[in-house]
Model the fold of this input.
Amino acid sequence: MTLPPATPLPALPSLLFGGLATILRRPPPAPNDTAFTACFAATGIDPAHVAGYRELFDFRLPGIPLSYFYLPAQRAQLALMLDRRFPYPLPGLIHRRNALHRHAVVQAALPLAIDASVQFSRSADHAPEISFEVTISQSGQPVVSCTSTYRIAARKRPRPAGAGEAESFPESYRCSDWTVDQAAIRRYARLSGDYNPIHLAVPLARLFGLRSAIAHGMYSVGRVAALIENQGGRPLMAISADFRRPVPLPAQAVCGVESADSGRGCYELLLTAPKKIALRGTWET
Done:
């Protein structure tokens, strides 16, 4: 198969602006079963930008954090969403799962080749599901891969599983209290370029059917990643995330992580009011 030529990786703010125009798209009655691909190129990674990311989350180990690579991967995903072959409007897409894997050490000064693809399917409950595969390479070798799954927002929002019951995680988890406020989310928006209105202010979030502004899902993942690395003293090789419910702003939460000494394990983020799991996943160092 001949790959399409690489194009410069677009900037995220312009992609989000272009996404507003997709609201006029009419989703097909059945998901498109044809995958399509695109190739992007970036000149390298800005060390100052990495330093800002590390400072925001308090990464203490040297190097580029694994969760940082979601930022270029997200730009590649959004570029595919703006492609005329993508049938769904961007407003209303819900990020449900994400997984990042490190395959090799990334050299910040070397160019990046970013190959992205999208596939359409249906979940077990017959809802449309969209999966993106992004591979970041240097010198012809994969260095990081990212998989993201999105679903279409239902017109009538269903109650999350266990909505009427308090949730918890194992007592064996090592716990950290979190405060998630609007100031931190605005810092992440400036750093990532993700100015999605649902994260920035209550009136804007309400336009999209939310009661309050919510934290970026990958802000929470970045914070978990820093916590695991700082506790275990080893860089992450893989981290996954299952986004179960939004983190409203402001929020108090407890992050529970299996002992980072084991080299792999699970984690969960528990909102304190109400006591609900917002995020869970696995990690490996």
Summary: The domain at 1-158 is CATH 3.10.129.10 (Thiol Ester Dehydrase; Chain A). The mean pLDDT is 90.
